[in-house]
Design goal:
This protein is α/β, with parallel strands linked by helices. The protein folds into two domains: about 120 residues, ornithine cyclodeaminase, domain 1 (2-Layer Sandwich); about 180 residues, NAD(P)-binding Rossmann-like Domain (Rossmann fold, 3-Layer(aba) Sandwich). Helices cover about 35% and strands about 25% of the residues. The protein is built from eleven helices and 15 strands. Helix 1 runs parallel beside helix 3, helix 3 packs parallel to helix 4 and helix 3 packs across helix 11. The longest helix is centred in the middle third of the chain and has 20 residues.
Amino acid sequence: MRILTNADIYAASQPGELVDCLAAAFGAAFASPDRMHCDLPGGDAKLLVMPSWQGREAIGVKVATVMPDNGALGLPTIDGVYVLLDGQTGSVSAILEARALTALRTAAVSALAARLLSRPDSQTLLLVGTGALAPHLARAHAAVRGLSRILVWGRSPAKAQAVVDALSDQGCEVAVATSLPDAAAAADIISCATLSDAPLIMADWVLPGTHLDLVGSFAPEMREADEALFRTGRLVIDTPTALKESGDLLVPHRLGWISDPVPELADLVRGHARVRTSPTDITIFKTVGTGLSDIAAARYFVGKAEEPQNLFQRSAGGAA
C-alpha cells in the first residue's frame, strides 16, 4: 500500500497532464453516485463522502470536511483522506491526503471546462477569492489558455497580494484587482472560488464572450453569481448533483431560467453537446465536485509515484 501526503501530491503536480487525465476519465465509462452531504452541528461545518469506481479497474472514496471557521485558527478549510482500492480484489492500493488532491483536481476540472467553453483567444483571467485553491486555478487555466494577464480580487488586499506573489513564476502580468466590476469587465475568464453566501459577480459587469467558472457554491445557502447571468448564459455542470445542491443554480432554476436537461462536462468531452456557438456567448461552468474527478486524480498521482523518476519522498511504511 502506498501513502501519499499533501506535499507528495503538490510536488508531482503537472497541471496540463492532470487536465488531460481528467478529460480521458470524463470521456470513459464511470460510476459516480451522489455524494453524502452532512451538515454538522454547531455552525456551517460539513462532512462529505464521495464514492466512485471505474468499472472493475479501481474503486475509491473520499471523506472530506469543510470547516469555514478554520481560517481564524490558521488551519485549512478543507481536509480529509482518499482511499483507493483495487477494483478486482477490493484491497487498499493507496491512501492519499485529500487536501492537495481536492485542490488540484478541482482546478484541473475547471481548466478542462475552460478549454472546452472559453474563447480560444482568451488572455485575461480574473480570480475571485484568495483561498488555497486560487493559485492552482490560475496555473491550471494557464495550462489550457495562453494567458497574458491574471487579476486577483479578494476582500482582503493582503491575501490577494499573497496570491499574486505565489504566481510570480507564471511568466505573465499578475496583479491585484482593486475594483471587482472593472476587473470582471476586463476578463475573458472569471473563476470564482469562495465561500460567499451572496452573489459577487453581477450580470451587467460580464461582457459578451466571457467564460464564468463557478467553484465555490456547493450548498443551497452559498452563491457567487447573479441569477440574471443564467437568463442568457450557456450553462454546463460537472454533475446533476449541482442542480440540487448549489445556491447559484437553485435560484435561477426556480425562476425558469435554467432548462432541463443541462449539458454535463462529460457530454462536452464526448462531443455530445455543443455549448459555445459564437464568440459572443457567455458560458458558465458550475462545479460542485465529483467522485470521478477524485478517483481519476488519485490514480494519476499514484501513477506518478510509481514512475522511476518520480518526485515523491516515500512516507514511512508508504510502500509495501
